[in-house]
Protein 1
Amino acid sequence: MPKTILFLGATGGCVLSTLRRSLAAGHTCIALCRTPSSLLSKLTPAEQAAVHISQGNAHDAAALRAALSDPSVPPHTLVDYVISGIGNPVTKEGVLHPDVDVCRKGMEVLLEVVAGLRGEGFTGRVRVLGISSTGVSDFGRDIPIAMIPLYKVMLHVPHKDKKGMEDLLVASGEEWTVVRPSWLTNGEGGVTDVRAGMEDPERKEVVTKAVGYTISREDVGKWIFENVVEEVDGKWVKRIASLTY
């Protein structure tokens, strides 16, 4: 069944990979972008024609409000999915002057807007997926021992932000999924099989464990499409997935 999906951070590799697959499958795809040309330059002409671009910032409540309304059905209906991969850009400015609260703040605004729209009579289920990172689990180690110093030194600040985002989702009462990729790489995916560990934060337990070093952004997006967008059994609802090779 066709779905309506709002993408946040769609110019990033993981979310872009999911967006392109969702467009190819015939889903209605909305992308909230600060600079639409940055996304359009990465899409084919057919993809450009199919995607609905909404210009704005993921921290802007008014922009989110406009993007959360499903354009394919009668008014006052929410989108089916929100897939968020927002974070600091991998640029000189993003590295030297990061927004240390970008993920948590974005999720806070999103959830507040969804709650507000429901209060105004908007209907529809919203499944929210947030892309986080391995190394932030409360229930077990999901990174190799050799990478612990690197994660602790280099990624302490962004990981605190990612964990804040996760905590908001878990406590939200919405349907949600968190995806924690291991160290992200560029390039084509499909080189090797993706392994997925599962955590259940409500039961405070690791259901299945997957520990590894890397995974490509392309394969993260493919996994999200196949296991969340196209999901039929609800396996990953209110669950955390750790993805690695």
Protein 2
Amino acid sequence: NIIRKVLKKHNLKAAFFLTGDFYREHSSVARALQKDGHYLGPHSDKHLLYADWKKRDSTLVSRDVFEKDLADNYAAMKKAGVAIEPPRYLLPSYEWYNDDISRWAKAKGVQIVNFTPGTTSNADYTTPDMQSYRSSEEIYRNILLHEQKNGLNGFLLLMHIGTSPERTDKLYNRLDELVVELKKRGYAFERIDTLLKFKKK
């Protein structure tokens, strides 16, 4: 709800990649997000790990399992009353995939998308007991530091809408502040399909 309010306040259109389980359990939230003009896509029906963490070229699911999981994710979207808009993008679960997954997705007319590395915004799910833990303050500073050094033009900035209850320090509570600061630095925000279309030209 916080994310939705901030996006509405600034008239921003974001992309939400959600699991089939999310669409089934929170269909009204998904419909409301789409009604607000956001892009909605799949994030694996059951949040499967597609590739080995250490040997990335080792695929952990068969093509049939991947295709069924993707189809089930789309079916959950449809059942939730969410329109499936072209172009079709997939943000892989755990933001982790390999060439097999890219190839199989492409054969289904789906393009893989992922966050742009460098800001650590994707670490907003981490909890204090993890070695990889990053506080929201640290992530916020990293985003602005990366912008200062390299810019953020064309960036896909990832933020999780749901994180463990053990993480009480939610990055989305800093979203309004971040948007205001980036606008001050001259940035405009585009919906993913508009951004990627522009980048192809």
Protein 3
Amino acid sequence: MPAKKFDIIYADPPWDYNGKLQFDKSSKDVDNIDWSRKIFISSASFKYPTLKTNELMKLPVREIAKDDCLLFMWTTNPHLTQALELGQAWGFEYRTVAFIWDKMNHNPGQYTLSNCELCLVFKRGKIPRPRGARNVQQLTKAPRKKHSEKPIEVMQAIEKMFPSQERIELFARRKAKGWSVWGLDVFE
């Protein structure tokens, strides 16, 4: 982790699914799959190293957060409770759902078809000043790309809301102008 402190932390934790495989059929013909066969075709742990919640809690995120800081954290539906606990362990208070990403596809879930991910916002101290745009939409509709890659529109929305703040993306996959990055898979 960098020694610098930040106003905005944007994180997409590599949630562990206890070795269980997940469906990943974003590039498949959904209507022609025989769900009774229960064929699993992808797992996060096959794509990148994952961490259990207690391991994520040990990361020194509170040390890189300014006294007034916002944490935007992605969570999958099965990890919602753990995401709330993780934000608290990192020294933040849960505020609300900042963004809902409609992936524009349908993955099976335990109870309903899962096609959305949530980006929660947590606060430490006060909301960083100065504020930018306040008319940013919560719902983002964007098709899935690579496994676990989040829509760039969400980062752009955060930039509009907080254009002059020090920002970092944790578990980053690419460098972005105006952002510090930390992660195993960072590329240009």
